[in-house]
Amino acid sequence: MESLGVLITYPLFPYLEQELLRRGCHLLRLYHSPETNHLAFLRANASSIRAVVCDTHCGCRQGRLVKCKERGVRVTNTPDVLTDDVADLAIGLAIAVLRKLPAADRFVRKGASKTGGYPLTTKFSGKRVGILGLGRIGLAIAQRAEAFNCPISYHSRSKKPHPNYKYYPSPLDLASNCDILVVSCALTDETRLIINRAVIDALGPQGVLINIGRGHHVDESELVSALVEGRLGGAGLDVFENEPDIPEELFQLDNVVMTPHVGSDTVETSMAMADLVIANLEAHVIGRPLLTPVV
After folding, report:
1. Which part of the chain is the D-isomer specific 2-hydroxyacid dehydrogenase NAD-binding domain (predicted)?
2. With a threshold of 0.85, does the pTM exceed it?
């Protein structure tokens, strides 16, 4: 990988940058250039760029994948290594919403526990958990929820070979038959805004929505309205429609727990993802099969 020109679209996890530099890669940092100058930067460095490392801030959407395939550009991703962290966060958000953990923490910090008791909350164990998208992450969430004696149901593009999990043919049917609805499907044209007013209303004033998928899975204005009006019981959100902008109405709601798109952001997983990026680059350079090819 000596002198391999690598375009970096966004600041990297330090370990990954150090490993690329240690291997002699020439890093071209697009983010050091003003956005209005990105095209000029790319044109000026086109002859040097032999690989691109990007993240969710500047990903490779479906249209770009098609163009890559047409031009013979190989594309890889980092699946599996983030599954545990995202699934852990989904369960954590559900418990945090039902037990109102952030509000309880604030209650203690401001000294209120010295003068009174904290209101009763709701248990997570035994709740009916519905999972929208039973892929790698969805299945990991289901397995974790089972440990809490939660009945599992799901909706996916097709029925899965998991007889203990009940399949529903539509998101609306799923929402009507669960207490907690977890969004863990891929974002496609079909799943964009899949959580609409009808699905939210079906989940109802005792229901909780957990989104660790993508912000565009949810009609955010309908979600905010439902939470403010009490038509939805609560929400745990790691992703938002217009990140990093978040509806301010959510800031005042104790039945909403939010995290800043950190589903896979642990040291361990970031290092594993970095190692996989490097392994794919090395395989490409020496002409071996890619480890996790997309295109």
Report:
1. 91-263
2. yes
